[in-house]
């Protein structure tokens, strides 16, 4: 009997705990749902306060346009987003999607501007404003390298990573290929020239870096890449001069003569050519001092003046010297007595 009472008591306790856990879970779910509804309710109130008095799609669009005209770009972005969420298939939805690209761009959010432009291109490939979307796509990358410190500290854009520059160049190139008669083509073409010059100058910086560290083959390849792919840019002259120096340092004097003749013919006023027409070989290399390294370039100097190579060129190329050394020496003239006596008497 005692065993039966104990079992019944254990069963009642187990059932009570089970019911208690179920009620606790239910209470937690009800509490979470209440919090969620409350947050959503307050959010709706905030939205209603912000867009109070706006009922039609045209009213939303007009407010966004007024904010954009008054350079309230953050406010216009919020209104454009509200317009699209409330009237996703309305007659102002497409126009709002293209204008928000400009709003993102002017607000300084270049990544959002690119994303909005790509979204417009994907959703409206046949739109009359599709060329503007491509133009803004390239423009967002064109200005993406400019940061807050660039307003106060001068930074050479040709020494930056060229990823954004290449991206912007390709976007503008796509605009010109698809819509050559677009009103934005002229500006895109001018920006492409600027970007191409920057890309070529970046390659020259890399070539000089290799040259100063005596990686002559790597420097020559970078310079040759500029000559082959960036014709018409100011960096081509520097690239030819780097090729001349690399060939001289490597002992390839025939190639150096060819490159130097090209430099004389096309860029006779280049700083690497002196008044006598001779090529000036560099003697300074990067040689940072300990003070310069410890202070991260604030103090000290990083330039040295050790000679890297002879400043005068050999008169003959290396291959010609080898050929001359292999030629048989000329025999001297022999007298008649030497011939008769078989060289015993001269």
Polypeptide structure, described:
Helix 3 (73-86) packs antiparallel against helix 4, helix 5 (110-123) packs antiparallel against helix 6 (130-142) and helix 8 packs antiparallel against helix 9. The chain is mainly α. Strands 1-2 form a two-stranded antiparallel ribbon. It is 65% helix and 1% strand. The chain has a domain at 53-148: Serine Threonine Protein Phosphatase 5, Tetratricopeptide repeat, CATH 1.25.40.10. The model is unreliable at 1-8, 16-21, 35-46 and 305-320 (pLDDT under 50).
Task: Give a short overview.
This protein has 346 residues and is mostly helical.
Name some characteristics of this structure.
mainly alpha; Serine Threonine Protein Phosphatase 5, Tetratricopeptide repeat; two-stranded antiparallel sheet; 14 helices; 65% helix; 1% strand; disordered N terminus
Distance between the termini: 149 Å
CATH H-level homologous superfamily name of one domain: Tetratricopeptide repeat domain
CATH architecture annotation of one domain: Alpha Horseshoe
Sheet/helix structural class: mainly alpha
Provide a count of the helices.
14
- Calculate Rg over CA atoms: 38 Å
Helix content: 55-70%
| Major beta sheet, strand line-up | 1-2
Describe the global form: elongated
């Amino acid at each position: 009997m005692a065993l039966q009472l104990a079992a019944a008591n254990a069963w009642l306790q187990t059932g009570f705990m089970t019911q208690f856990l179920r009620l606790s879970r239910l209470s937690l779910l009800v509490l979470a749902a209440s919090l969620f509804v409350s947050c959503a309710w307050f959010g709706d109130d905030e939205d209603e306060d912000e867009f109070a008095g706006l009922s039609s799609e045209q009213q939303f669009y007009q407010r966004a346009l007024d904010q954009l005209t008054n350079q309230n770009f953050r406010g216009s972005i919020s209104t454009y987003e509200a317009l699209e969420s409330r009237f996703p298939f309305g007659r102002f939805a497409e126009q709002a999607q293209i204008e928000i690209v400009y709003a993102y761009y002017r607000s300084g959010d270049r990544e959002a501007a690119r994303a909005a432009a790509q979204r417009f291109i994907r959703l409206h490939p046949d739109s009359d404003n599709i060329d503007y979307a491509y133009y803004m796509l390239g423009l967002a990358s064109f200005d993406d390298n400019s940061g807050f410190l660039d307003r106060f500290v001068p930074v050479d854009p040709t020494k930056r990573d060229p990823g954004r520059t290449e991206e912007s160049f390709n976007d503008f190139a796509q605009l010109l290929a698809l819509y050559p008669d677009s009103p934005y083509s002229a500006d895109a073409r001018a920006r492409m020239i600027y970007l191409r010059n920057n890309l070529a100058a970046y390659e020259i910086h890399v070539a000089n870096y290799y040259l100063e560290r005596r990686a002559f083959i790597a420097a020559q390849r970078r310079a040759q890449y500029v000559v082959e792919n960036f014709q018409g840019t100011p960096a081509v002259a520097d690239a030819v001069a780097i090729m001349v120096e690399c060939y001289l340092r490597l002992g390839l004097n025939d190639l150096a003569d060819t490159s130097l003749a090209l430099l004389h013919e096309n860029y006779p006023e280049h700083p690497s050519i002196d008044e006598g027409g001779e090529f000036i070989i560099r003697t300074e290399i990067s040689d940072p001092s300990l003070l310069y390294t410890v202070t991260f370039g604030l103090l000290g100097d990083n330039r040295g003046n050790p000679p890297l190579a002879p400043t005068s060129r050999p008169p003959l190329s290396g291959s010609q010297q080898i050929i001359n050394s292999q030629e048989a020496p000329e025999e001297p003239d022999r007298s008649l007595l030497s011939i008769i006596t078989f060289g015993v008497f001269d």
